Amino acid sequence: MHQVPPARRDVRVIDPDQVCDAAAVLADGAQLQHSAAVLDALGDVHRLSILLALHHAGDLCVSDLAFAVGMSDSAVSHALRLLRAHGMVSAQREGRLVRYRVVGELTTRLLDVVSEGVVGVDVVLHAHGAAGAHGEAVAVVND
Question: Is 102's pLDDT higher than 90?
Fold first, then answer.
């Protein structure tokens, strides 16, 4: 049964079943807004770099992250504030040090997809031995 709002019952549609399906997948407006915000945040090369660095290297503080991505500490801090506001990273204080990490299933899944095209198979991740931050095997290049 099609659930058409009373105010729109007189609107003509060509394929009512498909229109009903399209409306059904867009029904959770809050989740749709969250997903759009995550995709928007991933659309900036600096924020994407920060997220990929955290995704693969694990928890990092602002200064280490800034060095890794080639940005200033203040620029990284600003980006991290935005990413925290969107629920994409969290912060954990260790004394005077604050470490950041990627959080959220959607963020992690999207970074996994992006990583397939961005991160080379011959990348050696030193901090995690022969496995990446998420336990995936990382090929080691012998010189």
Answer: yes
- Do the Cβ atoms of 121 and 106 come closer than 8 Å? no
Side chain identity, residue 64: D
pLDDT confidence tier of residue 135, bands split at 50, 70 and 90: very low
Q: Both tokens of residue 108? A: 């992690």
Q: What is the DSSP string of 9-73?
A: TT---S-HHHHHHHHHHT--HHHHHHHHHHHHHHTSHHHHHHHHHHHHH--EEHHHHHHHHT--H
pLDDT in tens, 20-60: 787 888 888 888 888 888 888 888 999 999 999 999 999 99
